[in-house]
Amino acid sequence: MITMPRVALAILALASSTAVALAQPGAPQPDYHPSFGDLMTFAVQPRHIKLGVAGRARNWPYAAYEASELRNAFNRIGRTVPTYRQQAIPDMFASAIVPSMDKLDAAIKAKDGKAFDAAYRSVTASCNNCHAGLDHAYIVIREPSVSPYADQNLTGGSNTGLARSKPKQASVQ
Ligand code: HEC
Predict the structure, then answer these.
(1) Is residue 101 part of a domain?
(2) 81 lines ligand 1 (CB under 6 A)
(3) According to DSSP H, which parts of the chain are helical?
(4) How many domains does the chain divide into?
(5) Which pTM was predicted?
(6) Is 170 inside any structural domain?
(7) Is 44 in the pocket of ligand 1 (CB under 6 A)?
(8) Does 87 sit in the ligand 1 pocket, CB within 6 Å?
(9) DSSP letter assigned to residue 29
(10) CATH of the domain at 54
(11) For residue 128, what pLDDT is reported?
């Protein structure tokens, strides 16, 4: 029988034990601690976009849902990252964004398109005021002109979410 060199055996043993550790269900996973910027990027920014697209299309049920999601995201961020540069994040949100979110909710509840447009503009301005106030004036949020979410119907129009115009009639041959 051919004997493997000791080093090769050791490497094999290490590789297989690592594989077992990785594959084991319930094995401790390293914690991922999202930064404030991460949370803004994946919990706030997409919801701000979706809310803008849905509101412009006057898709009130969805806008109501997403406005609540955005508000809750701010609450969760405040719990995950309680302070930023020694300032309490929940207090910052309460003064910086909650008043314009309240206006937005009222507009959605009243199904008032004009009020929505004004409130959404004020929410977007609040995002930017906070960025500027915290030395991030170069993070400029604007109202989305199109949805980047090709797989989601945000306008409440047709079920397909594709063009809202009438589909072309199939030509009868
Ligand atoms: C309480 C203040 C505050 C409010 C309100 C706020 N932000 Fe932020 N945001 C920040 C700070 C501070 C950063 C930078 C975090 C860092 O990188 O340390 C940031 C970062 C971001 C980023 C990351 C930028 C990038 O390109 O990586 C995005 C996107 C963002 N914010 C979107 C928004 C949107 C959209 C809103 C409004 C709906 C909003 N923010 C409201 C404080 C705020």
Answers:
(1) yes
(2) no
(3) 6-23, 36-39, 45-56, 60-80, 89-96, 98-109, 113-133
(4) 1
(5) 0.81
(6) no
(7) yes
(8) no
(9) P
(10) 1.20.120.290
(11) 98
